[in-house]
Amino acid sequence: MSATLTKQPLTTERSSSYAARIDHVSKSFGRPGAQQQVLDDIALDVAPGEFVCLLGASGCGKSTLLNLVAGLDKPTAGSIDVPGGRPALMFQEHALFPWLTAGKNIELALRMRGVPRGSRRTEAERLLGLVRLNGSYGKRVHELSGGMRQRVALARALAQDSKLLLMDEPFAALDAITRDVLHDELTRIWAETHVSVLFVTHNVREAVRLAQRVVLLSSRPGRIAREWDVEIPQPRRIEDAAVADLSVEITEQLRGEIRRHGQH
């Protein structure tokens, strides 16, 4: 049973324009003759301003696909086009430099982008305000909680001013309450900035909580098994009945993929 479809505040029209195009991409690792295929014939567009979650069991190639879109590796077959330039990437670990303050971590990304020195602090403080960390410019990483560190990491990613934000399970290590708060914050920031988001997770409810579209990957090798348009209005709660109903449907499909490929 699908969730009730309702128009969202931020609507994305599917058209010939895209923030990322994954065009029949396959990826294998290993030596010729002893290769392991991880991804097989993935074809997926992310529309401008769209929030897409890649969902699948561990080892299905979600992070591999994200790395390909980020330009950190090359596909074995097919092509990837990101017309807005290099995407921003946010990892599960915050990857902040501990010897720099929160503000200076963000300023580093601004410097790499070519922002003049005189403007960097103002822009870093603006981005800290966007993630609701006003007054944290001078704080060291060890002074920040796990959730605060991820907010700084998100601000640093946004500092790259990319039209596409790639997120690889960025909230997986956080406790449930902090994760729920950051879901709210990410939804707000996405709506305010209109950035396109490609978000990797193995958490079904997280995917339904956040995304406009959920793409399920099968395993061994990863293929697109099914997609769902999630038109439940934002803001959503993880415990909402519509979120729960669609999560059950997707979970059943995911379990079927796991059984089909002999995973436990």
What distinguishing features does this structure have?
about 260 residues; alpha/beta; Rossmann fold; 6-stranded mixed sheet; disordered N terminus; ATP hydrolysis activity; transport; ATP-binding
N-to-C series of helices and strands? EEEHEEHHHEHEHEEH
Give a short account of the largest sheet: 6 strands, mixed
What is the CATH third-level topology name of the largest domain? Rossmann fold
Residue windows where pLDDT falls under 50 for at least 5 positions: 1-16
CATH homologous superfamily identity of the largest domain: P-loop containing nucleotide triphosphate hydrolases
| Number of β-strand runs | 9
> What is the total domain count?
2
Please compute the radius of gyration using only Cα atoms. Answer: 19 Å
Report on this model:
One of its GO terms (molecular function) is ATP hydrolysis activity. The protein is an alpha/beta fold and 264 residues long. 35% of the residues lie in helices and 21% in strands. The chain has helices at 62-70, 102-113, 117-130, 146-158, 176-193, 204-210, 241-260, and strands spanning 20-29, 36-46, 51-55, 77-81, 88-90, 164-168, 196-201, 213-217, 224-229. The strands form two sheets. Strands 5-6-7-3-8-9 form a six-stranded mixed β-sheet, with helices on both faces. A three-stranded antiparallel β-sheet has the order 2-1-4, covered by helices on one side. Helix 2 (102-113) packs across helix 3 (117-130) and helix 6 crosses helix 7. It starts with 19 loop residues before the first strand and ends with a helix.
